[in-house]
Amino acid sequence: MPSLWVLLALGCLRLCSAVNLQPQLASVTFATNNPTLTTVALEKPFCMFDSTAALNGTYEIYLYVLVDSARSRNASVQDTTNTPLRSTFQQTEGGRTGPYKAAVFDLTPCSDLPNLDAVGDVSQASEILNAYLIRVGTNGTCLSDPNFQGLCNPPLSPATAYRFKYVLVNMSTGLVQAHTLWSYPIWTNRLSPHLAIDTWPGRRSGGMIVITSILGSLPFFLLLGFAGAIILSLVDMGSSDGETTHDSQITQEAVPKSLGTSEMSYTSVNRGLALDRAEVYASKLQD
């Protein structure tokens, strides 16, 4: 008899142990920027539920999301018949009026989890992260796409506290088999207003100050050089126009004068030669 009680107790612990567990934020080893403004990365429920359920392959994990409030700790994710809720993001106003189902994934046996030693391999990193992590708020188009048919996991609201719960669902019956507690409130990041950004130089190194000063003054020098180039080009254009006009005037004045002088000289020479020949011819006739 005592052995029977022990077996029943162990079976209850294996099946109900998840009730005492909560979803946790993903380790910084796998998600360095977590949470973000609109997403939260969680660890999947490794070995939380009965291992025989995972081996049978007839169970799924539902992830529910709820905005933190006074009643969120006791919010139910199933109806009176143990059927899991099918409420969506739109129906619950993003989790403000009740929990919504954000993701569904298979219950993976502990023995089938990938080896974490291979996380440094780029070719296996994506597979390992998908096996160990679930990210809430990754689908940015499902709300605006009228033809979207899948489970909508839209971005979360910034600066908002959320709670999360894992539920084990029997696929053959469609009923809740087990579930975890609601997680502690997890806040998404807050937008930093420009007035809250620290600009005090004492918080920055000397090198950063020098680089910032150079980059800040560089546009001024570029603008100054550009203006100087425009002024020089205008001055050069004015000088070239004056020289062209002066040369043309000299040429126009010089050509007629030179032509007139040459014609006068040529005419006087011809006339002188003609007179000399006439005198010689007349003297010969007289003789």
Structure description:
This protein has 287 residues and is an alpha+beta fold. It has helices spanning 2-16, 51-56, 122-132, 206-286; strands at 40-43, 59-67, 100-106, 133-136, 161-170, 175-179, 186-187.
Distance between the termini: 183 Å
Gyration radius, in Å: 47 Å
SS field, number of helical segments? 4
Count the strands?
Answer: 7
Strand content: 5-15%
The helix/strand series, from N terminus to C terminus, equals HEHEEHEEEEH
What's the average pLDDT?
A: 75
The major sheet is characterized as: 5 strands, antiparallel
Shape: elongated
**Low-confidence region ranges:** 1-18, 246-255, 257-262
What level of helicity do the residues show?
Answer: 25-40%
Features:
about 290 residues, alpha+beta, five-stranded antiparallel sheet
Could you outline the blueprint of secondary structure elements for this entry?
Blueprint: H1 2-16, E1 40-43, H2 51-56, E2 59-67, E3 100-106, H3 122-132, E4 133-136, E5 161-170, E6 175-179, E7 186-187, H4 206-286
Antiparallel strand pairs: 1-4, 2-3, 2-5, 5-6, 5-7
What is this structure, in a nutshell?
This protein has four helices and seven strands, in the order H-E-H-E-E-H-E-E-E-E-H. It is an alpha+beta fold and 287 residues long. Strand 5 and strand 6 form a beta hairpin.
